[in-house]
Amino acid sequence: MNLSRLTIRARITGGSLVIAILISIVAGIVIFTQVQRTVYDGQVRVLENVEGPYLTALTAAGTEEVDQPGADQLVAVVSPDGARRVNTLPGSLTAQLDNLTGRSDGTRSVSAGSDAFLVRVTSVETENGVWKVITANRDDAETSVLNQVAFLLIASIAGINIAFGAATWFIGTAALRPVDSLRRSAAALVSTPGDEMLPVGPARDEISELASTLNELISQLRASAERERQIVSDASHEFRTPLAIIQTQLELAQRQADTLPKMRADVQAAQRTVARLSALATSMLELSRIDAQAAPGSATLSDLVLELSDAADRGRQRVGGRDIRIEYSNPPGDDRAVAVSDADFGRVCDNLVNNALAAMGETGVIELSLAAHDSGVLLRVADTAGGMDEAFEPLAFHRFSRADRARTGGGAGLGLPIVAGIVSVSGGESTLENRPGVGLTVCVSFPWV
User: Which of 18, 295, 399, 400 could form an SS bridge with 417, CB 3.0 to 4.6 Å?
Assistant: First the structure.
């Protein structure tokens, strides 16, 4: 039987009922054993009461006369010479009398024909020798009582377990009613998307906590879906414009270029647009990789120090004929691990340097510095490109944000979002120190692993 196919209510009821049955069986066995012991002790006390007068009479000095037992009392008194002074035992038990008197004193069960007896043998020391007092009681009474007790126990346990199973079923139904409500609400949200959330009950229990957690998940999924829709919309817009330009330039080269130099100029313009499209596609793929990255990379501080110097060299190669200096400073390298790969750290440096170069005129300075602290490392990229509009600061790390053309240089606005994405995956922080009219410093931190 595949239990996973059962409902939660059925599993709770079945599991609880199995446990209740096991407990009931153990309790029933304990109770029956105690009742059995009590009945046995009661019968022994009856036999002791029956033999009591005979033991008193035989132990009295010089007294060997014994009275006849009362009605229905099964007693045998055997003198030292083997004579049976008293004998009211049934014939089947009398036949075993010699065997019984030869045994040690005590109480035992004896089978005589089709009957069962509880027999007690007691020896009495006198001046004339050892007397034997044998008392017996039919075992039918004990068996009858025990059968009644067993029947009552079985009936009671069955009734209690049936009532317990029904109560567990109804309690499980009541406890799972909020879950059914959540399921219906979730089904409604799926069929009619909107801004509604799952209902959270007034009780602060596990169901309410589950609803709150699911609402947070729904909010995140909706925000993620909205971001994806916005990215698709922005990307479509970004691709549509260059593609239209390329189409126009190629049509002009085909229809209106009457000389080879003019055709080459049109084709070169189309190539520049294609290069912009290629850079945009590369940036979007990079963002997609960052979004899919579940865990940060790892590199030593020495690896980051080396990557920082390489990033400065790559930036100098992109300066061209402008009078721009790119300088860097870093701490001594060591083997401490930082929560970012050297490749991602290089991408951060390249994007920040490219943004600074795009915003800078013919002259300026770009400074890269790396410092180690107790909590991690801090990268600072400062430029003298005049800073950015203060109104644009809150949007600087948003994708496709290009309100400040001076700092994007006509790009797609994905440089700083890529930096923010890499830093976020690493568990660090990204901040801006904007100095309008002077320059901008981007600070990013990476924690130790």
Answer: 399
CA-closest candidate to residue 380, choices 329, 317, 307: 329
Q: How many alpha carbons fall within 13 Å on the CB side of residue 70?
A: 6
- The answer for residues whose C-beta is within 8 angstroms of residue 312's C-beta and 6 or more apart is 326, 327, 328, 349, 353, 368
In the structure, what pLDDT confidence band is assigned to residue 406 with cuts at 50, 70 and 90?
very low
Structure tokens, 232: 């698709």
d(CA 350, CA 404): 20
- Find out whether 308 and 370 touch, Cβ atoms under 8 Å: yes
Tell how strand 323-329 and strand 363-372 pair up. parallel
- Mean pLDDT across the stretch 104-122? 88
Share of the chain above pLDDT 70, in %: 86
365, 416 contact by CB (below 8 A): no
- Which pair of tokens denotes residue 414? 């994905």
How does DSSP classify residue 128?
Answer: T
Mean pLDDT of 85-91: 89
- Classify 168 in phi/psi space as left (phi over 0), alpha (psi -120 to 50) or beta: alpha
Count Cα neighbours of 216 within 13 Å in the Cβ-side half-sphere: 5
* % helix, strand, coil for the chain, step of 5: 55, 20, 25
Residues near 104 by beta carbon (within 8 Å), at least 6 away in sequence: 121
Mean pLDDT across the chain: 83
Give residue for tokens 């402008």.
322
**Residue 7 pLDDT more than 70?**
yes
- pLDDT above 50 for 5: yes
Residue that has been written with the tokens 């579940």 in this structure: 294
Helix pair 140-191, 8-59: axis angle to 10 deg: 160
Q: Which amino acid is at 344?
A: D
Pairing of strands 376-383, 439-447: antiparallel
| Contact partners, residue 433, CB within 8 Å, separation at least 6 | 382, 440, 441, 442, 443
For every residue of 300-360, DSSP letters joined together read: EHHHHHHHHHHHHHHHHHTTTTSEEEEEEE-PPP-S-EESS-HHHHHHHHHHHHHHHHHH-
| pLDDT tens by residue, 143-201 | 787 888 889 989 999 999 999 999 988 888 887 787 788 788 888 877 776 777 887 77
- Cβ neighbors of 286 (< 8 A, separation 6 or more) are 347, 414, 418
Q: Which residues contact 401 (CB under 8 A, 6 or more apart)?
A: 392, 395, 413, 416, 417
Six-digit token string for 335: 């083997």
